[in-house]
Specification:
about 100 residues; mainly alpha
């Protein structure tokens, strides 16, 4: 189901919803551009979010971009653990709703 070749279908979205996709790509570019937060850290944050949303496309794309921005394997490994801690923490805190 998850195959990077599926991203070629983005062209169909561009064709069928050009204004919305143009706005999306502009927003994405602006959000990921260097600013108060350097690109390396933005890519590491995007990677952490990708782990928590479990999006294989985002994991592959942002892992590559993080490495291109000079993220180390140790930094990426720590991002994995941060994402795992947040997912586990959410389970714990949401679990309180089940307690009487």
């Amino acid at each position: 189901m998850y195959d990077m070749k599926n991203l070629e279908k983005l062209k169909s979205l561009q064709t069928n919803a050009p204004e919305a996709m143009k706005a999306f790509w502009a927003f994405d570019k602006a959000a990921m551009a260097a600013g108060a937060i350097p690109v390396k850290y933005k890519e590491l944050m995007a990677l952490a979010v990708a782990f928590t949303t479990q999006c294989p496309y985002c994991i592959e794309i942002h892992a590559k971009k993080a490495r291109e921005a000079d993220a180390s394997e140790q930094e990426i490994a720590e991002v994995v653990v941060i994402a795992a801690a947040l997912r586990a923490g959410a389970a714990i805190t949401h679990g309180t709703h089940a307690l009487a």
